[in-house]
Design brief:
Layout (H helix, E strand, L loop, with lengths): L11 H6 L7 H34 L4 E6 L6 H12 L1 H8 L3 H26 L31 H9 L2 H13 L36 H7 L10 H30 L1 H10 L14 H4 L8 H6 L8 E7 L4 E7 L19 E7 L15 H14 L7 E7 L1 H9 L18 H19 L7 E4 L5 H25 L1
Parallel strand pairs: 1-3, 1-4, 4-5, 5-6
Antiparallel strand pairs: 2-3
Helix pairs in contact: 3-4, 3-16, 5-7, 5-9, 6-9, 7-9, 13-15
The chain binds guanosine-5'-triphosphate and magnesium ion.
The site of guanosine-5'-triphosphate (GTP) has 25 residues, from helix 3, helix 12 and helix 14.
C-alpha cells in the first residue's frame, strides 16, 4: 500500500505503522496476510468481550438485605430461619455447634436462680452476710418484692441443692471463655452522650467503621466438633476432652437443676422478685432433662431459641436456587453502642428487614436501664424512616415476639401501665397488635421523606414453620421490588 496523502511524514506513529517504502510484491503479500490475521484476532476478542458483556447483563444481580433492630429483637434468629430455608447443608453442619451455647444458656439461668437463692438463704442465717443480688439486667423482671408477704420456707434441701450445683459456676466460666465476648450480654454502662440517641450519628473518621467480622459464626467455628484448619491434633483432642468433661458435669447436675426449677418455694421466690425466666432469651429450663443429657444433639427448634449476641457484622451469602439470585444478608449488633456500625451498609442495600419486638412494652434496654424497649424501637424506626439515604430503600417491618406478647397479656400485664397513650382500649392481643402496628405505620407515614409502602408482618421468628412462609413472601416481595426499580433505572 502506497503512502496516502493524509498521512503526515511528521507523525512518528504513522511513520512507524506505514509499510516500508521499497516493499516487494512478495513482502506486501506477507504483510497483508499478517494484517488480516491481526484483524481476525482483534475481531475475535471484540466478539468475546461483547458476549461477556451480554452474559454480565443477563446474570441476576445480588440481592442485599440488612437485618436491623434493637438488641434481642430477633435479627440473628431471622438469619437462622433464612439459613434453614435456603442453605440446608450449612445449617445442618452448624447445628451441633450450638450445643455449647444452649448449655451456657441453661447453666446461666440456673446460676441466676442460685444467686437469688443464696441471697435469701443468707438473709435467713444471721451469721452470714447477704451475697450481692444478681444483676436485674439478666432476666426480665416486672414487679418489686412484696415486703408484707409471709417469709419463704427454705429447708436444708435447698441448701444441699445449692451446694451440689456449685460446679455450674465453673461450667459457666469455661463456656463463656470458650465462646468469647459474644457470650456476654451488654451491661448497663455509663450513659455517654453518643449513645443516648436511638441511632447515634456516624463517626467522622472512617477508622471507627473498622468492624470485627468476629460474629457469632466465628464463635461457633471455635467450638465445632471437627478440628479447625489451624488447630493442632493435640489442641483438638484437649478441646474434645474438655467438651466431654463439661457435658459430664452438666449431666451430673441434671436432677438437682430440675429439682431447683420445679421447687414451689423457689417459684414463689422468683414470683416475688418479679422474675419471669420464661420470657428471657435462651430459656431452656423446661428442657433440662433433654439438654443436660450427655450426647445431647440440638434440634432446629433449640437452635432458634438459643441466645448468642451479635457483636460484629455477620454476612451470610447464599443462592436462592429457584430464582438464581445470590442473596447477601447482613446481621448486625443491635445494642445502642453498636449501631454506628450500620451506616456503611445503607449505601447499596436492596431491602431492610426491621425487627421490633412488641412484647417488650414493659421492659428496659439492658445497655441503658432508663429507656423503655418499645420506646427505643419507635425512635429507631422513626430515625431510619427519616433518613434520606434510605428514602427509596424497601423496608419490611417484622413486629416480632407475638408469642411472648400473647403470653404476657394473658398473664395479666396491662399495656396502659407502660404505654399511657394506649388508654382504656381492651388489653386483648388483637387490639394490642393493631394498636402497635398503627403506631409504626403512622411514624413511617409522617417521617419518610417520600411516600413508601411498608409491608408489615406479625411474627414469632422462633416458630420456624410460620417464619418459612413469611420469608417466602418477603423474598418474592424483595425480588419484585428490586426488578421493578431496576426497570425504572
Ligand atoms: N419467644 C420468642 N423468642 C424470640 C423471638 N425472636 C427471637 N427470640 C429469642 O430472643 C433472643 C434474642 O434473639 P436474637 O435473634 O439473638 O436477637 P438479635 O436481634 O440478633 O440481638 P443482638 O445480636 O444482640 O442485636 C433469642 O434467644 C431468640 O431465640 C420470638 O419471636 N419469640
Ligand atoms: Mg444477633
Amino acid at each position: 500500500m502506497a503512502r496516502g496523502n493524509s498521512i503526515s511524514d511528521d507523525d512518528p506513529l504513522s511513520a512507524a505503522l506505514a509499510p516500508p517504502p521499497n516493499e516487494t510484491p512478495q513482502e506486501r503479500q506477507e504483510r497483508e496476510q499478517r494484517e488480516a490475521e491481526a484483524r481476525r484476532v482483534s475481531d475475535e476478542i471484540d466478539e468475546q468481550l461483547r458476549n461477556e458483556r451480554i452474559a454480565l447483563k443477563r446474570r441476576k444481580p445480588t440481592v442485599k438485605v440488612l437485618l436491623l433492630g434493637q438488641s434481642e429483637s430477633g435479627k440473628s434468629t431471622t438469619l437462622k430461619n433464612f439459613q434453614m430455608q435456603f442453605a440446608q447443608d450449612t445449617w445442618t453442619e452448624e447445628r451441633s455447634s450450638w450445643r455449647a451455647v444452649i448449655q451456657l444458656n441453661l447453666v446461666r439461668s440456673i446460676n441466676y436462680i442460685l444467686d437469688l437463692l443464696s441471697n435469701e438463704l443468707s438473709q435467713q442465717s444471721p451469721t452470714q452476710s447477704p451475697t450481692p443480688r444478681p444483676s436485674t439486667a439478666d432476666v426480665h423482671r416486672s414487679r418489686t418484692n412484696g415486703s408484707s408477704l409471709p417469709p419463704l420456707r427454705f429447708t436444708e434441701q435447698h441448701r444441699l441443692i445449692r451446694l451440689r450445683l456449685t460446679p455450674l459456676k465453673n461450667v459457666q466460666n469455661d463456656l463463656e471463655h470458650r465462646l468469647g465476648a459474644v457470650s456476654q450480654e451488654a451491661k448497663p454502662g455509663p450513659q455517654t452522650e453518643a449513645f443516648t440517641e436511638a441511632l447515634p450519628l456516624p463517626p467522622r473518621s472512617s477508622e471507627a467503621y473498622v468492624q470485627s467480622r468476629d460474629g457469632w459464626r466465628s464463635a461457633l467455628a471455635k467450638i465445632r466438633n471437627r478440628r479447625a484448619d489451624d488447630e493442632s491434633a493435640k489442641a483438638a483432642d484437649a478441646r474434645a476432652r474438655k467438651d466431654a468433661e463439661l457435658a459430664e458435669v452438666i449431666a451430673g447436675c441434671a436432677e438437682d437443676m430440675r429439682a431447683l426449677w420445679e421447687d414451689p418455694v423457689v417459684r414463689e421466690m422468683l414470683k416475688r422478685e418479679g422474675v419471669h425466666m420464661e420470657h428471657s432469651p435462651g430459656f431452656f429450663l423446661n428442657d433440662i432433662e433433654r439438654v443436660a443429657r450427655t450426647g445431647y444433639e440440638p434440634s432446629d427448634n433449640d437452635v432458634v431459641r438459643a441466645r448468642l449476641r451479635t457483636l460484629g457484622v455477620q454476612q451470610y451469602n447464599f443462592l436462592v436456587e429457584q430464582m438464581g439470585h445470590e442473596w447477601q444478608i447482613f446481621d448486625v449488633g443491635g445494642a445502642r453502642s453498636l449501631r454506628t456500625a450500620w451506616y456503611p451498609y445503607f449505601d447499596d442495600v436492596n431491602a431492610i428487614i426491621f425487627l421490633a419486638p412488641i412484647s417488650c412494652f414493659d421492659e428496659r434496654l439492658r445497655e441503658d436501664r432508663r429507656v423503655n424497649r418499645l420506646e427505643d424501637s419507635f425512635l429507631l424506626w422513626q430515625t431510619l424512616c427519616s433518613l434520606k439515604l434510605l428514602a427509596r430503600t424497601q423496608i419490611i417491618l417484622f413486629l416480632n415476639k407475638c408469642d411472648l406478647l400473647e403470653r404476657k397479656l394473658l398473664s395479666g400485664v396491662r399495656v396502659k401501665n407502660f404505654v399511657p397513650s394506649f388508654g382504656d382500649r381492651s388489653n386483648d392481643v388483637e387490639t394490642v397488635k393493631k394498636y402497635f402496628q398503627a403506631h409504626f405505620k403512622e411514624i413511617a407515614k409522617q417521617y419518610s421523606p417520600e411516600p413508601r409502602r411498608i409491608s408489615i408482618h406479625l411474627t414469632s421468628v422462633i416458630d420456624t414453620k410460620a417464619t418459612a412462609a413469611t420469608l417466602q413472601a418477603v423474598e418474592e416481595g424483595i425480588l419484585r421490588d428490586s426488578l421493578r426499580r431496576a426497570e425504572l433505572i
